Amino acid sequence: MAEDGFVPPSASDFFFNPIFGNNILFTKPVLLVGLSVVLISVFFIASSRKAAIVPSKLQFAGEGIYSFVRNSLGEEVIGPEFLRFVPFLFTLFTFVLCNNIFGVIPLLQFPTMSHIGFPIALAIFTYFVYHTVGIRKHGIVKYIKDICFMPGVPKYIYVILTPVEFATYFIIRPATLSLRLFANMFAGHLLLLVFTVGGEYLLTSTILMKALSIFSFGFAVGLSFFELGIECLQAYIFTLLTALYIAGALADEH
Amino acid sequence: MTGTMAIVGFGLSTIGPGVATGLVFAAYINGVARQPEARALLQPIAFLGFALAEALALIGLVLAFVLK
């Protein structure tokens, strides 16, 4: 046999060697993030050049993505003051979407959001934005008072409501925002690894196992399409939750 | 019988999100069955509920792999 037993993929498969030289920072995920920024910029600059009244296909695609974020994620969720948040929401959406889709593209095949640093950075941006918006609109004293002591509630409920609300707004929201994206991408990539590496291991075994490896590879292909759907959904959910938190900070009274 | 407690813990933690996903989509199907025009209106809400419920199951899966 080629290997002594099957070595299942684990968290160590997510670490990469540095590409040039010895510094630990320049690895494949960093390269992929840079590539995603270049790709997004080139696509949207090319789609908005020579903007005509009757759009070409590229312009139609670019405008479609922009109007999806602006209308269904900006205007419907945030309300009247949505225009100044559209650049932020649009950047979040396209960045997360492009990096997620790298998980199923044949040569790249690594969703960079499965390294927890990237979702944490994005969640920190969201955290600062919705708190700053709330503090600028209401003033810091009234903002914290509205979070901790929600108006319109009987006084004795504050004993249990205040710690829960405080923890939610300051600790749980950024944590779950980043963990949700990270866990989805990590689990998806791990699933694809299991079926692909498992199929490859079956190929080195007896003839019956070689026939069964077709099912493993077939599953890997099917799961890739499912993974594509999950990736688009997670990009949408991240941006939708950001918009909802901003809308909650802008709202006047509960 | 050998194994790890991590996988047992993950298996137990998927009960809640499984029930939650079923409830969310049952409500969506009921809503669309009563009023088919509401399909596009209810769809974002259904997907939001599903993603929030699934987040906990996936956090369990990740912790089962990371903390052995």
Automatic annotation (TrEMBL), chain B:
Membrane topology type: Multi-pass membrane protein
Swiss-Prot/TrEMBL GO biological process terms: proton motive force-driven ATP synthesis
Subcellular location: Membrane
GO cellular component terms, A-Z: proton-transporting ATP synthase complex; proton-transporting two-sector ATPase complex, proton-transporting domain
UniProt xrefs under Gene3D superfamilies: F1F0 ATP synthase subunit C
Sample GO molecular function, one term: proton transmembrane transporter activity
Listed InterPro entries: ATP_synth_csu_bac/chlpt, ATP_synth_F0_csu, ATP_synth_F0_csu_DDCD_BS, ATP_synth_F0_csu_sf, ATPase_proteolipid_c-like_dom, F/V-ATP_Csub_sf
Cited CDD domains: ATP-synt_Fo_c (cd18121)
Domain V-ATPase proteolipid subunit C-like intervals: 6-67
Keywords recorded for this protein, A-Z: ATP synthesis, CF(0), Hydrogen ion transport, Ion transport, Lipid-binding, Membrane, Transmembrane, Transmembrane helix, Transport
Transmembrane segments: 6-29, 41-67
UniProt function note: F(1)F(0) ATP synthase produces ATP from ADP in the presence of a proton or sodium gradient. F-type ATPases consist of two structural domains, F(1) containing the extramembraneous catalytic core and F(0) containing the membrane proton channel, linked together by a central stalk and a peripheral stalk. During catalysis, ATP synthesis in the catalytic domain of F(1) is coupled via a rotary mechanism of the central stalk subunits to proton translocation.
NCBIfam families linked: ATP_synt_c (TIGR01260)
Similarity comment: family membership: Belongs to the ATPase C chain family.
Protein name: Unannotated protein
Organism of this sequence: freshwater metagenome
